[in-house]
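Hi all, long-time lurker, first post. I run a small reading group and we've been trying to get comfortable going from sequence to structure in the token notation. Rather than ask abstract questions, I figured I'd post a concrete chain and ask someone more experienced to write out its structure so we can walk through it together at our next meeting. Sequence below, copied exactly:
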Amino acid sequence: MKLLLPLLTAAVSAFAQSPAIPINIGYAEPAPFQAAPGQVVTLFLDDVPFGSDGRTRSAQAAAGDLPTSLAGITVRIELLDSTMLQAGIFAVEQQLQCGLSGLQAGDAACLLTLVKIQVPFELPGDLVLNNQNVYTVPRPALISIDVDGKRGRGFPLQPLPDNAHVLTNCDAVWDTNGSSVCDRQVYHADGSMVTPAAPAKSGETLFLLSYGLGRTDPMVPTGHASPEGVALSDLLPNHPRVTLGIAMNFVNALSSAPRTGFNSQADNAIPVPITSASLVAGQVGTYKVSFSVPAPTDSIIPCGGDVKSNSLLLVTTSQGVEGIGLCLQQ
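-- Answer (accepted) --
Happy to help. Here is the structure in token form:
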């Protein structure tokens, strides 16, 4: 999932040599940015200047633990008790948005800066039981961007218990182009993709990968690759953070549709048993959810020709439902 931060334009505008006006259209002030502990997201920033060499900033973290500063960029999150956390940074990239026409040396007005980070796992994100015996989300923190050692202004960040994003073909290559078609993907146990040519079979164990599923047991320090056996914790006692269902004979479902707050097909979905949910060993902030394919209760339309998928996998968390079109073999 892309995390668009339009208000962070103002957070770094002091560093630009040409003034820019951040734009947000609607009928109310924008809500705080949202993220779960440990979530991998991309920040999209305006008015970050060129690097000290006059070139666009471009850097990729080396193998091992993620740095907290890269290409002159640092991302800080301040809690209400003044605790300061730093995000791990995967990569920084700057793109020219206006071409070279009218762009002067050092002018950041036409630059878009992409910063791929891991939100600190230490960020409190789980539900809080208040004095009225009601669960609420934690109070907002502040997120700010430092550029070349200069502190940026803080903006509200609302921690969530989860903010799931099933990985797509675009995530694999860090494709953030809004015109790209980014399909969520499901894999066979050997790591090959489920496709019409390689459909899923009844009783087979498949898996999907995700960002932003929240707390684990034990917690892995921010920016560190996960060891083996780090399981996803429950949202509440006996309430898992993620559940799965499948609607059969749902033909050519889009795997790129936005996450929804509800799904009209959920009542008709067959529950899908999750066999394991954990962080992927050796990776930073990537979750693996394995599940067993249920047997169809009725005959299903076979894939082939114009039928690219014949069922819809529903991935449900506290923030909504993500759909994935699957091809099942009778």
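A couple of things your group might point at:
The CA atoms of residues 126 and 161 lie 4 Å apart.
The radius of gyration is 21 Å.
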